[in-house]
Design goal:
alpha/beta; about 20% strand; globular; binds 1,4-dihydronicotinamide adenine dinucleotide; binds magnesium ion
């Protein structure tokens, strides 16, 4: 970008050209030299040579220069690191919260102390601008450790009843290398876990520098281990038996692979994946601010940002004005060397990424998109660096690849809309759901639109702002789990009662297999009269296959027939739930009233339900009565919670109100165990309903009649159609269909270990959030295990809405 000869003062005055403003690379180069430009893994508090000795280069994308050789971790390296983390765990957990807090505080201090080294090293390894690493990445890293030093201190009081999960395997991408480390490592350590982290192959250096600083800061050995390498190393880490939790940020494709690889292993999993976030400009927006917003949305970090505002949606009446302003602003952007402090855009991470961007841009042109790049785009001197100019596409069709695929580069596509409703529809027309920006001077409009956007973060009149106190994470194919804030801490904790659970026992009997079925499924008229039905869309319906199965009592007596629901019935139930939006739109007060009413109506028929339970399970009278009474109480619990489990206003350090709102998933599947057939059903369905989800439920296959007897109770309790759907039949067969169903956003499964595995595995494609019991048996009568905030937390996900204030 810079010319070779030094211009005269007069010439500078006339041209008003920027001169070069380079930051010195000396500190970073000295650090690299001190390590002879060659690194092993960081395991057990020190650098160790890789077991198999293979190494590869990490380079500076701005000129291709090699910075250092790093180790390609193999299974033995991963194993050594996980063992170190396991060995460190007892002593780390034995520390007081205060002692752990001081360690996190020391990490924050060390990041600040070495801020300059880290900022330069990050800019070199990644190719991003120093302006951003110095002013954004590194300060946010320090802030993250300070914030989590606080959570460490408060863990036992703020998360009573929860405990750390154990060893965490964490895999991070190359776009914000140290910041992603901080987002992963800080909450894991604050909660009392130990960590094996694998940085991305293109950007391992700041993680290694950080690990070294952590040791220098006195972090006990083995608490934080870093294994470098590419995707193969990541896969080896995910495969390791010693992990209790996997946290991943990266592509949706690899997220799916990790979901598959971890299915059924009893791990906690959080995935932060891709995005194609909308940037919505209404006609009353401050257009100049909005244009600056676009710069921050898509040209921040070369557009290599998972939550980049990459789809510009502009209200038609101002579209021409916005485009004109945007083109003028693009002209003044500066792209070039990372360490030049006056640069806006740096280099793309690697040739493979540059190729991907180029290919998608060519495709967009071929699809008829109108491409604009600034006049200087082709004329910059790039010294062999991997640069791509800022690019704006207009006249893009909403269904085109350019509008749907994550480009992960400095390319924005623009479309227009006429009404707010159309804006919301266009914004949600994506398989992702990470973030969204809304620009309008009308607070009513902004706060009307924000809850309708299916995205984990909504920025009003701002974009790409982050803080440790506010959770971050996606909806739909952008993944699940949150990083930051209170909700981020839960990702590294588990309820203490989980460790006390007994293995699940399948009740004897249940749905007979095919052969027995033929005999037990009479198709005649009288038989149908004795057969319970499915409950779909507020109506009792016959199963699609017209099959039923016998429900036998404890003494072998034939109590009746239950419908054998199939794939088609599940689809119908999901469709009914999808349409049952009235329940989600109902006020929390309203939902509470319906749940109270349900409880009352159940209570009024307690005798009948008690008798039914006794006949099915052979329970003693007192126990059956106790189960009905507990079910009534449980409904009261969730009626009570419906308008009390609410959000927070976070104290983020900007002039900003950050609203953290728990939102229902939408359509949830709930698959129930055999034991306590009424109480377990109520315990699982009621919290999901209380939070506003529409539910497709599968009651106990062995004893389904407690649920099918509820139909009359439901009919008299004002529950809107589609809010609760009940499909009886083979638990694991129905569960597999629900897990695969793309319109089911979240799923709970309580049954066998095999069934739990299948649910996790089958959810990999559509990336629904799942909560399974891994074959453990809960005591539904114990309020600690059978009810409470864990259920409500799992029935919702948090959306953070940032609303800045001030003139
Ligand atoms: P990636 O998902 O392959 O890499 C992310 C991390 O996962 C890296 O540390 C990588 O080594 C590791 N990894 C790769 N394969 C793995 C496996 N099978 N098991 C475990 N770990 C594995 O992303 P990549 O290839 O760097 O970029 C490809 C595309 O992904 C980008 O073009 C972009 O669209 C998207 N991406 C999204 C990010 C986000 O923050 N959401 C970050 C990076 C990339
Ligand atoms: Mg590099």
């Amino acid at each position: 970008m810079s010319s070779t000869a030094t211009p005269s003062v007069k010439a500078i005055f006339e041209s008003m050209e920027y001169g070069p403003a380079p930051e010195s690379a000396e500190l970073a180069q000295a650090w690299l030299m001190r390590h002879e430009r060659s690194f092993g893994h960081f395991v057990g508090g020190r650098f160790v040579d890789p077991v198999d000795g293979e190494r590869f280069a990490t380079t500076h994308p701005g000129d291709g220069a090699e910075l250092a050789q790093v180790a390609q971790g193999g299974a033995a390296d991963v194993d050594a690191a996980v063992r170190a983390a396991q060995e460190a765990l007892p002593a780390w957990q034995a520390l007081t919260p205060f002692a752990r807090s001081r360690h996190l505080y020391a990490l924050a201090r060390h990041v600040q102390k070495h801020a300059r080294l880290l900022a330069v090293l990050e800019a070199l390894d990644n190719g991003k601008t120093l302006r951003e690493t110095r002013d954004i990445d590194i300060p946010l890293v320090a802030r993250h450790f300070y914030h989590h030093a606080g959570w460490a201190q408060l863990r036992d009081s703020e998360f009573a009843g929860y405990e750390p999960v154990g060893v965490c395997g964490q895999i991070i991408p190359w776009n914000f290398p140290l910041l992603m480390l901080a987002w992963k490592v800080a909450p894991a350590l604050a909660a009392g876990n130990t960590v094996v982290l694998k940085p991305a192959e293109f950007t391992p250096l700041t993680a290694l520098a950080f690990a070294e600083m952590a040791a220098e800061a006195g972090l006990p050995e083995g608490v934080l281990n870093v294994v470098t390498g590419d995707g193969r190393t990541g896969a080896a880490l995910v495969a390791h038996e010693g992990l209790a939790k996997v946290a991943f940020t990266g592509s949706t494709e690899v997220g799916r692979i990790i979901r598959q690889a971890t299915a059924g292993r009893g791990l906690k999993l959080s995935l932060e994946l891709g995005g194609k976030s909308p940037f919505i400009v209404f006609d009353d927006a401050d257009l100049d601010s909005a244009v600056e917003g676009v710069v921050d949305a898509i040209w921040f970090n070369q557009g290599e940002v998972c939550c980049a505002g990459s789809r510009l949606l502009v209200q038609e009446s101002v579209a021409a004005a916005v485009e004109e302003k945007l083109r003028a602003r693009m002209e003044t952007l500066r792209e070039g060397p990372s360490l030049d402090k006056a640069m806006d855009i740096g280099a793309i991470i690697a040739p493979v990424q540059l190729d991907k961007i180029t290919r998608l841009v060519e495709q967009c042109k071929a699809e008829g998109g109108r491409c604009y790049q600034p006049s200087w785009a082709q004329s910059v001197t790039r010294d062999g660096g991997l640069y791509f100019p800022p690019t704006l596409f207009s006249e893009v069709a909403p269904s085109s690849a350019a509008a749907q695929e994550e480009i992960f580069g400095p390319v924005i596509v623009s479309m227009t809309f006429r009404t707010p409703a159309e804006a919301v529809e266009l914004a949600n027309n994506t398989r992702y759901g990470l973030a969204a920006s809304v620009w309008t001077e009308n607070v009513n409009l902004a706060l009307d639109v924000a809850p309708k956007l299916e995205a984990g973060v909504v920025w009003v009149n701002c974009t790409n702002v982050f803080d440790a106190a506010s959770g971050f994470g996606g909806y739909r194919e952008s993944g699940y789990g949150r990083e930051g804030g209170r909700e981020g801490m839960y990702e590294y904790l588990k309820p203490s009662w989980e460790a006390r659970l007994e293995p699940y026992r399948e009740a004897p009997g249940g749905v007979p297999d095919g052969a027995a079925l033929g005999a037990g499924a009479p198709g005649g008229e009288e038989a149908i009269d004795r057969t319970a039905k499915l409950y779909i869309g507020g109506k009792q319906t016959r199963p699609d296959g017209a099959y039923s199965y016998p429900v036998l009592g404890a003494d072998g007596v034939h109590l009746g027939e239950a419908p054998l629901g199939n794939r088609k019935d599940v689809r119908n139930a999901v469709e009914a739930a999808r349409k049952g939006t009235a329940w989600t739109k109902a006020t929390a007060h309203n939902r509470a009233q319906v749940l109270y009413y349900l409880a009352e109506n159940l209570d009024a028929r307690a005798g009948e339900f008690g008798a039914r339970l006794r006949a099915m399970t052979g329970a003693r009278k007192a126990d059956a009565e106790r189960e009905v009474a507990a079910s009534v109480q449980r409904l009261f619990t969730y009626a009570a919670h419906a308008d009390k489990y609410d959000g927070a206003v976070h104290a983020t350090p900007l002039r900003n109100v950050t609203l953290a709102m728990p939102e229902p998933w939408g359509v949830m599947a709930v698959v129930c165990p055999d034991e306590a057939p009424l109480l377990a059903f109520v315990s699982l369905v009621a919290p999901a309903l209380a939070m506003g989800n529409r539910v497709v439920s599968v009651p106990s296959p062995r004893w389904p009649l407690a649920a099918t007897d509820l139909y009359q109770v439901l009919d008299t309790s004002d529950l809107p159609a589609g809010a609760l759907n009940i499909v009886t039949g083979d638990r694991d067969e129905l569960a597999a269909v629900l897990a695969k169903h793309a319109d089911v956003a979240a799923m709970w499964y309580v049954g066998s270990a095999e069934g739990s595995t299948a649910v996790e595995r089958e959810s990999a494609d559509n990336l629904k959030a799942t909560w399974v019991n891994f074959g453990d048996r809960r005591d539904w009568f114990d309020p600690e295990q059978g009810e409470g905030r864990e259920y409500l937390r799992r029935a919702t996900h948090v959306k953070n809405i940032w609303v800045p204030y001030g003139e």
